[in-house]
Amino acid sequence: MVELFERIAQRIGDGGELVALTGAGISAESGIPTFRGDDGFWTRGSTNYRPEELATWRTFASDPELVWPWYLWRLARCRDAQPNPGHTALVDMDEALGNRFTLVTQNVDGLHSRAGSPEHRSYHIHGNLERMRCSAECNANTWPVPDALRVFAKGDAITPADEPLLRCPSCDAWARPHVLWFDECYDEKWFRYRSSMSAAMAADVLLVVGTSGSTNLPMQMASQALRSKALIVEINLRESAFSDYAVQSGGGLVTGPAGTLLPKLARRLASGSSA
């Protein structure tokens, strides 16, 4: 660990750029269950729905009143969680490096923002459960899920009082959760695809934290960082699809929880780097 963290500090030096790519592992340390876990299932009537069935444009377009309660229940669970020392350490890295730091996160729980990561240096490539947008795309805005909405428990249904709060204020179409669904593609407009790839191309270090590599854009970023001769270092509980990239880059895997390891790296960077 010490050797790899020293190599990160050397690469960053006084002018290097660090990109941190985070996944579900860092949120799990705050008590947020993984997306596909057993408690992610949703029941309506006698039918059990898997997350992969609910998290699609096709399902939402045909039955928004099935999809919205599941997302609002997930949002309530995320709001109950708190940022952990791993989130805080990434804020410390941002403060130490300034514009030489970029956060790219797959997590939609909003914990990075609540910890203090600045939005202009944070790319939420799978969206954010705290926000919604017009399903008819009558405008190019997102807006917060209304505070006036009640807290949804598992099994709750949309009521006539809820529905107006889940409509677009401009055209009255259904609003939709601002998340990337399984049958949708990454783009720049909503999910910062080009920005994330550009960050990977410019990175001197790609720090991969708590992700398995099961989604496309993060793997593209690792491949681009390797081609650009960045040092790739992975912090994870076990090997993942990123581990080979890390070794090929001259980096490697540091095994352990992000909440323990990231603060150590943040302290090292703060002691030897200037923004």
Question: How would you explain this protein's 3D organization?
Answer:
The structure is a single chain. With 275 residues, the chain is of the alpha/beta class. The protein has a single domain (2-61, 65-272), classed as TPP-binding domain (Rossmann fold, 3-Layer(aba) Sandwich). Helix content is 39%, strand content 18%. The chain is built from 12 helices and 11 strands. A 6-stranded parallel beta sheet has the order 5-4-1-9-10-11, with helices on both faces. Strands 7-6-8 form a 3-stranded antiparallel beta sheet, with helices on one face. The protein has a two-stranded antiparallel sheet with strand order 2-3. It is elongated.
Sheet with the most strands, sense and barrel status: 6 strands, parallel
Shape, principal axes of CA atoms: elongated
What would the average pLDDT be, to the nearest integer?
Answer: 93
The helix fraction, in percent, is 25-40%
Q: Give the amount of beta strand, in percent.
A: 15-25%
Poorly predicted parts? none
SSE topology string: HEHEEHHHHEHEEEEHHEHEHEH
Write a brief structural summary.
This protein has one domain: 3-Layer(aba) Sandwich (Rossmann fold), CATH 3.40.50. 39% of the residues lie in helices and 18% in strands. It is built from twelve helices and eleven strands.
